[in-house]
Structure formats: structure tokens, C-alpha cells
């Protein structure tokens, strides 16, 4: 049974990655914030710092 759960988790990660790629086609800045929040687990403030944008900008893009 763990193999099924693992396979399901892989498909979910791939689906999330594909969704972020499509988002990047529409708005690269927002996609970068999403990547850092979802895949790296960064806070909005830390994501903003790593991208060199104001935290208010990152919060606006995240919401």
C-alpha cells in the first residue's frame, strides 16, 4: 500500500509543478513566489528577500 501512496504523491507534485509552469507563462513573478512558498517552504517575507522584492509586493502577489 505505501507504493500507491507514494505514486499518488508523485502525481500530485507533478500536477502542482505543471500548474506553476502554466502560471509562469501568465505571470513569472507570481510563479516564483509560489515555487518558493510551496516547494521550498519559505515564508512570504523570506521569499520576497530571496527574489529581491518588497515584502508588501510578495504578499500582494501571494494573495
State the helical fraction: over 70%
Q: Measured on Cα atoms, how large is the radius of gyration?
A: 14 Å
In percent terms, what proportion of residues is strand?
under 5%
Total discrete domains: 1
Q: What characteristic shape results from the CA principal axes?
A: globular
Number of helical runs?
Answer: 4
Tell me about the biggest sheet? Answer: none
List how many beta strands DSSP finds. 0
Distance, first to last CA: 37 Å
The overall pLDDT average reads 88
- Summarize the helix and strand pattern as letters: HHHH
Q: Identify low-pLDDT runs.
A: none
SSE-based structural type? mainly alpha
List its salient traits.
63 residues, mainly alpha, 4 helices, 83% helix, 0% strand, globular
Describe this entry's structure for a reader.
With 63 residues, the chain is mainly alpha-helical. It has helices at residues 2-26, 28-38, 44-51, 55-62. It has one domain (2-62). It contains four helices and no strands. Helix 3 packs across helix 4 (55-62). The longest helix is centred in the first third of the chain and has 25 residues, at 2-26.
Quick overview:
With 63 residues, this protein is mainly α. Helices cover 83% and strands 0% of the residues.
Write the layout of secondary structure elements.
Elements: H1 2-26, H2 28-38, H3 44-51, H4 55-62
Helix pairs in contact: 1-2, 2-3, 3-4
